[in-house]
Design goal:
197 residues, mainly alpha
């Protein structure tokens, strides 16, 4: 009888650990890394001689709010998978030639290190859930950004400033998605979120 109870307890513990998206990194480090990536993007702006006051993205490249709205109504696993996908696509854009932008290379490298770390750690929070899940529409959107902005404008400083601005919007929305999954400890809930962050 004792063996059966031990087996049931072990099974329940393993099942609940495997099905939960809560992980220490997400609760402890996610917000810190998000703030760091946004600060690095802002630093790129401060070091930029580029201007986009008159420049706008082509209408076919309108920000994909509908994809983020769908993701926000999805399961926790799908929210996390979508966030990881956004981070990976952003990193993919920076594999292209950004030398025309007046950004310090070390800032761009630090930015990519932070994004890759976020994507890797969020993927580990998912375990095997959703690692293969990608949004074809999101993938196509980033491909169009590459082709219709970067390549069409020959990777110019103006093109990269448009991309940087668009990336900022993506990271803000992805941050909101992932932040909705952070599990606050009970003692922090009564003091408010601002005390925790």
């Amino acid at each position: 009888m004792l063996n059966k109870m031990l087996f049931v307890c072990l099974f329940v513990a393993l099942f609940s650990a495997g099905s939960s998206l809560s992980c220490r990194w997400m609760n402890d480090k996610f917000q810190q890394h998000s703030e760091e990536s946004m600060a690095l993007l802002d630093h790129m702006t401060n070091n930029s001689t580029n201007t986009t006051e008159d420049a706008e993205l082509d209408a076919s490249l309108a920000f994909p709010y509908s994809l983020y709205n769908q993701a926000s109504n999805a399961s926790d696993e799908d929210k996390l998978a979508f966030t990881v996908h956004v981070l990976r696509e952003v990193c993919g854009l920076f594999e292209e030639d950004y030398s025309a932008a007046s950004w310090e290379e070390s800032t761009v490298e630090d930015f990519l290190i932070v994004l890759n770390r976020q994507a890797d750690e969020l993927s580990s929070c998912m375990g095997s859930h959703g690692r293969k899940k990608k949004s074809p529409k999101l993938q196509m959107y980033f491909k169009r950004l590459s082709q219709l902005v970067l390549k069409k404008k020959e990777h110019s400083a103006e093109a990269w400033e448009l991309i940087r601005t668009e990336i900022q919007r993506h990271l803000q929305r992805a941050d909101l998605l992932a932040s909705s999954l952070i599990k606050l400890p009970a003692d922090h809930i009564q003091h408010g979120v601002s005390d925790f962050i």
